[in-house]
Amino acid sequence: MGTKVEEEWKKGSAELLMLSLLEDQPRHGYEIGKLIEVRSGGTLHFHVASLYPLLYRLEKRGWIQGRWVEKPNQRRRRYYRLTAEGQRVLALQRKKWQEFAGAVGRIAGVQHA
Amino acid sequence: MPEWNLAIRKHLAGVNLRPEREAEIIEELSDHLQQRYEEFRARGADDDEALRELMAEIDWRSFVPELQISEKTPPDTVPEGAATSGHFFEDLWKDLRYALRMLRKSPGFTAVAVLTLALGIGANTAVFTVVDSLILNPLPVEKISTLAALNTTQAKKTAQSGDLQAISYANLKDIRERTHAFRSLAGHSYPMAVTMTDKQQPHRVFAEIVTANYFETLGLHPYLGRFFLPSEDTTPGAAPVAVLGYTAWQSRFGGDPNILERTIRLNETPFTIIGVGPKGFKGVYAVFGPDLWIPSTMAEQVLPTKQRNALSDRALPLFTGIGRLAPSVTLAHAQTEMKIAGAALEKEDPNANEGKVLTVTPLIEAAYGPERQGVVFGGFLLMTIVGFVLLIACSNVANLLLARASVRRQEIAVRMALGAGRRRLIRQLLTESVLLGLFSGVLGFGFAYGGCRFLESLRPAEYAQNLADLRLNTPVFVFAFAVAILTGFIFGIVPALRSSRVSVSEVLKEETRSAGSSRRRVSLANTLLAGQVAVSLVLLVVASLFLRSIEREYVIDPGFQTKHLALFMLYPGQAGYDRVRTEQFYKQVLDRIGQVPGVASVSWSSNLPLWGRKETGLTIEGQEARKKSEAISVVVNTVDLNYFSTMGIPLVEGRDFSENDRDVSTPAAIINDTMAAKYWPNQDPLGKRFQLPQGKSFLQVVGVAKTTNYQTLGEPPQACVYLPLRQNYADSMILYLRSERDPSAVLSSVQEEIHSLDPGLPLEDIRTGTKVIDQALWWSKMGVGLLGVFGFLALGLASVGLYGIMAYSVNQRRREIGVRMALGADQGNVSLLVLRQGMTVVGSGVVAGMVLSLLLGRVLSRFLYGVSGSDPLSLGGASFALLAVAFVACYLPARSASRVDPLVALREA
Lengths: 113, 909
Prior knowledge:
In chain A, 59% of the residues lie in helices and 12% in strands. Chain A is of the alpha+beta class and 113 residues long. Chain B is elongated and about 145 Å long. The two termini of chain B are 60 Å apart.
């Protein structure tokens, strides 16, 4: 678990992270959590109690949609995909995040990644 | 394998989920945990280690609250920016349901707001109905913009030169043959009183004589049967057919579906009903319309003897032309063509047409004649006034909403905390206010309906069915609907902007009562209130100005007595009497009625009081002949013996008519002193001679009577000529009688006497002198009545608003008042404090209202009679009334403030 500050940053960016991961293809919850962990090099980590409430919230808002999928030799799993509405929100949030990160960067003197 | 289900179920215990949903979550989460567990195992951990590591990384503390928020997140609490996308109607539906719930939760607020707004919307809709029915769309004809009225006017510019006069039948026919500007040109007379006998019952009805193409030109279709055929408009007297008006068909014939082919008698000539006119059509005069129409070739059968040759006499104007402009012809073009046509007619027959010009007017303007300006002004004034009444109602409801907003701060803050954006919130709040507006609109439409029916019931009963109806039709409905929605926005926008501007964390922490923001709220409310007071004052001043003006008009001395006067219109000529019998009848009536107890004096006259008929083209002996364009016009009245004593008009010189003024003796006339002074200045007018335009011989002045009002109350003096009935036969006259006491006491016995002479004569136009004055002032009275009603409505609304805001502010300041009282302020001090606060607002409103009223008074002064626009009594009276009502509205909260118990107030705080 990270520091208090990191927790806050994580919360702030969680929606954007999840929406981005679903942009290309539908994924199930474990896969999303794993991808965040792997792609962030272990910096960001969502556990079961923090990941799912967020997913459900996004689903309620109509930005993503979950569907149970059964595959051979496997338990059925719930796959989430991005809705049209979600795509719009993702674009908007990306833009805002860029602006935000840019602004922070300019003020705090951090090189923009 | 660990039992994930149980562990998860334990954590879900606090969340109230549907069983299916819970099962889904458990399934999904346990799958996740299983995979993670397997991940740890794959890295080499044993069962226990893997389980320990897995459990260590999960922080369940925030799980339940987060999940609760997720599960309860309504889909519509979308952050700003994403709100308007795609879900407009879905959101609207949700907002509507939410708004309904909120309104139902506070029925008191809803009722007051809806009632307040409904009064405003109702007043606006009612006035709009009047304006729409009388000014905007007075005539239900096809494409009124391409219809024009054709009249003659005097070429020379004089005071009366703008007056539209009729055209003779022969002239109209010539114009019709020559015109290219008009695709079709029809003609109609003004509505004329005729006697209609149906099943032996005589009635006075109004008929218009029209050319056969009249209805076709207007683009109308019959409700029943047909209109006139061209063949029915060629041979004089050959087509005794009539078209009934829809209203007359309903009221006089009970809407009988078998009315066609029925025979009625008009002035003793049988006519066959061939059709019923369209619903709502009452001729082309906006205000007064006929009961039926007959073709022009039947003119001779219904016109009074004097106008019998109307079809052939070019100098006898009877028809107003109505033209339908040919495609792509403008009004200006038509006017030019008519100017040329008029000049040609003048050249062909200078005797009849000299000095006259043909004038084309848009039909919608001609529908009123000269009164149009006044009517339009009145409509405009009333619309403005009710607009202000509605603004007052809106600002009252805005104040109510602001007061409510402070109660709803918590609710709004919670919604924002849950992710609702400001724009979304404003939309929700506006939905609420628009919904309020719509409810008020429905009630307001009901008020307007009642109001219009009430206004219609005030029409004089004798003419009610000939007067314009107020039509609550689609445009009116659209108007009310639009006003309702607009109203919702107007009163809702400021409170919505205000209440959505909350700081979530502050509000959630603070109490409901916050001193800082509520003071700002009160100052906005105060501004609204001062505005209301100012507007109410202006309305009251306007109402009282017009009230004082009409009061002055009532005491105008018309120059004849009205208190003991009664009138009966009789049309013996229309009952088939010949001249001998009519003259005999006139004498008999005078003898018989003179004997009736309570009747002091009785006479005949051809004119109704204040309905003087004028003739133009008088020749005075010994003075050089005037050009037709400078013709003298005078009021002409044919009267019988004792007219002057019956009317109480003093003779200033000479004698009254006597038995000796007969057909065979020298033609005599009595003139008024205005005429004497104008045409025989500094001379003795007695014995002087003059000739009337239609007259065959010179008339000798035998007497001079005092000038009275002939056409309108308080008019400038007009020249008038009285002719003796016994030398100037007329087949219909008005019986005038002077009673000893209240004239209504003798009305029935006089009716019986006349009925006993001939039961076949209709006797419907019976009036007393005071009623004549009443009718002359009817329009003004209606206007003033409406102004008064709206003025008081504004005053009432403003004082309710004042009371509400003062009571609210006292409630807000309870703690402060408690402190003051604890520190030694007594009840008097506290009352004074509150009163001063309220009356300061009222005072500034009154000052602003005064300034506005004085400015407005200047504009209004030309519509006032005998009162100046800055009449101190009106200004003072209205201010006093307003201050008194405002004082009460402030005093009640002040008193309740003084009763604050400091102990209770401080403990509450």
